[in-house]
Amino acid sequence: MEIIAFGVQSDEKPLIEKAFAGHHDIRCLDVFLNEDTAPIAAGHEIISTSVNADLAGRVLEMLAAGGTRMVAQRSTGFNNIDLEVAERLGITVARVSYYSPYSVAEFAWSLAMAINRRIVRASTRTRDFDFRLDGLMGRDMHGRTVGVLGTGKIGEAFTRIAHGFGMNLLGWDIAENPACVELGMDYVEKERLFAEADLISLHVPLMPATQNLIDAAALKSMKNDVILVNSSRGGLIDSQALVDELRKGRFTGVGLDVYEAEAGLFFLDKSLEIVVDDTLARLVTFPNVLVTSHQAYYTEDAVGQIIDTTLHNVLDYKAGRRSDNVLVPSAPRS
Fold first, then answer.
1. Residues taking part in catalysis
2. Checking DSSP bridges between strand 326-328 and strand 92-94, what pairing results, if any?
3. Contact predicate 82/60, CB 8 Å
4. Among residues 196, 232, 276, 280, which one has the fewest Cβ atoms lying within 10 Å of its Cβ?
């Protein structure tokens, strides 16, 4: 059986091909799944997709009409998939429910420290042999307060690093993580976290309840010199409201590895095209904003785990087994 994998990065391709060797043939494509590319899947029972795939109802209907019966998504997030339509069409959907939390947590801290210590500005200057220190002053993290929204596996890993810095720990989540409490985290209402934290990092999933969790009111309630980092999902922040606050000269800095309208932009080379997204175009012009291309998860360790889990999801589907990774189960077989 041949499986088509959409949205495969060049670094991923040899890892995917090696993992699937001896199990199934796999054809790796660098194009993302959407209405235009869905016809490629015709005749393939199983496809694999990336987090930036468009798996809305219309695309799922096209896949089902072409004979696709299983979607193995190579990510934890699945807000890009219409699960109700998939269930109605009898398409099994599985995701990767776990991979190295350290990859994202460490990258979130990389963003925070790059902003705090003006690393990008300093690097740009020294390439021009400008070794002045003007405008490069940062702050010690030790003794300051970090606010962590979402204290699951990634949030916990982020908190452990913050504890290593000697920071005061504030957390917000629907349930307390005993490991974070043991580190000294004080769980508070998000309003208090916004008001008191010197560094705020987002590690909650994107769902209706968290859409624009960081809205205009939340941004206004934060300290003027806060550092805000989002390595989770772009839809957690109202991007236009963020631009409005940045234009007022607020915040020490903002680190964004994700953006709410990143589909069709991130993972692609748009350097020779006119940027039509005015909000993103404005964000990248601020000297205290650092935008990266949804790469927090992108380590050998995490990608290897993602691929291994994807393979096992496929093997489980073929064997009629079900795991916790399954979002929409297989239709009963006659």
1. 233, 262, 294
2. antiparallel
3. yes
4. 276
- What is the separation, in whole angstroms, between the first and last Cα of the chain? 21
Residue 30, in any domain of the structure: yes
Q: Which pLDDT score, from 0 to 100, does residue 333 have?
A: 47
Same domain (yes/no): 248, 311 = no
| Each residue's pLDDT tens digit, 123-144 | 999 999 999 999 999 999 999 9
The reported pLDDT for the residue numbered 269 is 87
Same domain membership, residue 254 and residue 269? yes
Q: Are residues 203 and 282 in the same domain?
A: yes
- Decide: helix, strand or coil at residue 206: coil
At residue 89, the 3 state secondary structure works out as: helix
Instruction: Kindly state whether residues 135 and 260 are assigned to the same domain.
Output: yes
Q: What is the pLDDT of residue 332?
A: 52
Fill in the DSSP letter of residue 85.
H
Residue 143: which domain range?
A: 101-291
Mean per-residue pLDDT, 12-33: 96
Q: Smallest Cα–Cα separation from 46: which of 75, 16, 19, 68?
A: 68
Q: What does the pLDDT read at residue 268?
A: 85
Cα separation, 138 vs 140, in Å, equals: 7
131 in any annotated domain: yes
pLDDT at 334: 39
Choose between 267 and 173: higher pLDDT: 173
- 96 to each of 42, 71, 312, how far by Cα in Å? 24, 12, 10
Mean pLDDT score of the chain:
95
Which residues lie closer than 8 Å to 192 by C-beta, 6 or more apart? 170
Ramachandran region of residue 89, left (φ > 0), alpha (ψ -120 to 50) or beta? alpha
DSSP symbol at 134: T
Count the neighbouring beta carbons within 10 Å of the beta carbon of residue 25. 11
In a domain, 334, yes or no: no
